[in-house]
Amino acid sequence: MTTSFSQINKTNDSIVVKSQNEAEVVILYQEYVLDSLVKAKLKNDLLQKTGDSQRRMELQTKLKSIEEKDSLQQAELRRRINTLKLQAKAYAVAPFGDTLFLIYSRILSFSPERRAKDVSKSIKQVYDDPFFEPDSLVLTENEIGTEISYKNQIMVMFVTKIDGLIANKSDRQLADEYLKIIRSALVKEKDANSIASWLKRIGLVILIIAGLCLIIFLINKAFVWINKLLKLSFVKFLNDFTINKVKIFTQVPIMKFVLPLTTILRLIVILITIYLSLPLIFSIFPETKIWATILLQWILGPAGKAVHGIIGFLPDLFTIIVIVFIFRYSIKAMKYYVDLIDKGQIQFKGFDADWAHPTFRILKFFLYAFMIVLIFPYLPLSGSQAFKGVSVFIGALLSLGSSSAIANMVAGLVITYMRPFKVGDRVKIGEITGDVIEKTTLVTRIRTIKNEDITVPNSTVLLSSTTNYSTIAKNEDTGLIIHTTVTIGYSVPWKDMHQALIKAALRTDLILKKPEPFVLQTSLDDFYVSYQINAYTRESNQQEILYSQLHQNIQDCCNEAGIEIMSPHYRYERDGNMTTIPANYLDKDYKAPVFRVKEVGEE
User: Fold this and answer.
1) What is the pTM of this model?
2) Is the CATH number of domain 5-87 1.10.287?
3) CA 287: distance to chain centroid?
4) What is the CA radius of gyration of the chain?
5) Nearest by Cα to 528 from 501, 488, 493, 562
6) Assigned CATH for 473-571
């Protein structure tokens, strides 16, 4: 990596600026000290010159001038020191891992970082002395600062006047503090790495490991006892759970599910115990103490964030609870009035009672949707990009995959308010005929006369023609008309045929006597006349049985009246015989007449 000339110049310029600032601070400090000495001398002279008033006046004038200059110098010195602090970056002196103190200023070409490293290295050199004597660390003052040395052989550190000014102390006071800190750290480190200390640490580690083994043993014992207790509880208290005679779960599957969970939980507890013991072991040795802090941060950091997040979420949680409470009880109050409308105790003009519960479901949906909109901003991470991305993704999936479902839902709403049928009605939707057994938002279920349950999408119901047999059948004035057609030859008087068909209808069960059945002649064809019998009934769900009985009665009544129900291609060139009329409808002494065919020319 190359460095440009301009970059080098900028770096040098910054060093020069900092050096100039430090030099100016030193000059100001020296001037301040000199002025303080002069001010002290003037005060002493004022005390001695008690008789000469003119001399006293001169001394007071000089003293006042120096005091004014002193106040300005103090303000300027403080400003320069604050500027120097802002420009300076602190570097830690940490020869044994822990920070002893910080260095802010440079010395000539030595940066604060280089000074901090050199001081740490010197402290380590002192520590390596096998005959270390704490009292051998001494201070030596000179014109530019105070030196900390060891046995006059190793210069540990040099404290400048700039260092003292930054700490708001003299260089001697600051050096004395640093000396005490360094001496204490060396003594502590020597004691920590003695043979006795190591033996204590090893013994403590062995004690912790033994305690850990004992805790793991007790955890295993506790979970064995818990498993036995669970097995006894399952056998004693937990019976097979059933709903409407349907077994939801039994003892054996529950035991197979719960007992492995306790094993997994036991392993998790053991791993957590071991993990928590590691920081305790690492904290015993100085070299691994940093690992103890890291391991604790891995647990305490996320745990602290979780606790902090939960505590911070409590006001929003309270708001969500209040919103849910208001909407929940508003819907319950609405449900109370909906039930009254459904029972007919409350009536609105133009509003059918059957619309009460469907309308309530629609309103409930929109109320819950509105509630979610209100709650959404209070949810954790609702404003994060990940949450927004997931919301957009789910919305896209719903919009792409639910087009047919939405069409059926809209059709279900339209059908609800059209009221083409109700549950229990006999209907015909397209080619499907049966009784409506269920109406949902998406589909309509129909049970045919053959006990076939057919599910019809509501969109299909809306697009198909729907015939409702039950609506008119419940009308007390009329009823449902059932009808069937019989073809009879022209030789049978139509009045006789009308009478036979009406008689057959009145003989059929579930056919109303009032209004009376009636006959319509629907066509006059080449070989026969089409007679349609129409009769009223209120049992729309029994049409198949009605038609079967009606057809049987038509056969009986026609046979009783001597009327043959002929096929269209039956020729009338025959005498009546027993091939078309059963024997029990003929006279006991009936004999079939002779059927004679004459040829042309025969006499």
Assistant:
1) 0.45
2) yes
3) 44
4) 55
5) 488
6) 3.30.70.100
